[in-house]
Design goal:
The chain has 183 residues and is mostly helical. It has one domain. The protein is 73% helix and 0% strand.
Length: 183
């Protein structure tokens, strides 16, 4: 142990110099800046229990919602209508959410919590790529190749269009509210 500050290892001085210039450096949005300012070691969001809890809770609710809808909406022949509608509405909602949050400001505080709870958690549990893949494979291997191809193409194309539409709508709502507040 050093007897005085002058005998301290050089890496301590380097860490102090680093901390003095944090505002000048680009930061990973998944590292809590409050940890650095408080002198605590930085921990990525995915290692913080509070954020993990938000994702887990949102995922549980999203998965339950998906299961309820998939039981309530019947397939049309070999076409898995419920999963198709779930993935499309999820793509749209995620586009709206992420664009809305982006326009509100940096990914921190309440905006980060909403992104993790709703975007990563709820939408991650609500939408399902694996069930989409199984539905496609089932239709293709179950003597319904046209349905399998149609399902796969419609899901991908419509999902991208829905996400784009969600982003566009959130952008227009933001513009309209910004213009309305400026007048």
């Amino acid at each position: 142990m050093p007897a005085n500050a002058d005998d301290a290892p050089e890496h301590k001085d380097d860490s102090l110099r680093f901390a003095e210039h944090l505002d000048e450096l680009p930061m990973d949005s998944d590292v809590e800046v409050d940890d650095v300012a408080a002198g605590r070691p930085t921990r990525p969001v995915h290692f913080q229990w509070g954020f993990l809890g938000l994702v887990a809770f949102g995922g549980a609710v999203g998965t339950g919602t998906r299961e309820a809808l998939s039981l309530a909406i019947p397939a049309i022949g070999a076409f898995p209508l419920a999963i198709f509608l779930i993935n499309i509405t999820g793509s749209f909602a995620l586009g709206v959410l992420l664009e809305f949050l982006r326009r509100l400001g940096p990914d921190e505080g309440v905006r980060r919590r909403l992104r993790l709870l709703i975007g990563t958690g709820f939408m991650g549990g609500y939408t399902t790529y694996s069930t989409f893949a199984v539905g496609t494979a089932t239709a293709l291997s179950g003597h319904h190749p046209a349905v399998g191809v149609l399902y796969a193409l419609l899901s991908v194309v419509t999902g991208v269009a829905a996400a784009w539409a969600g982003i566009a709508i959130a952008t227009e709502v933001h513009r309209a509210t910004t213009r309305g507040g400026a007048q």
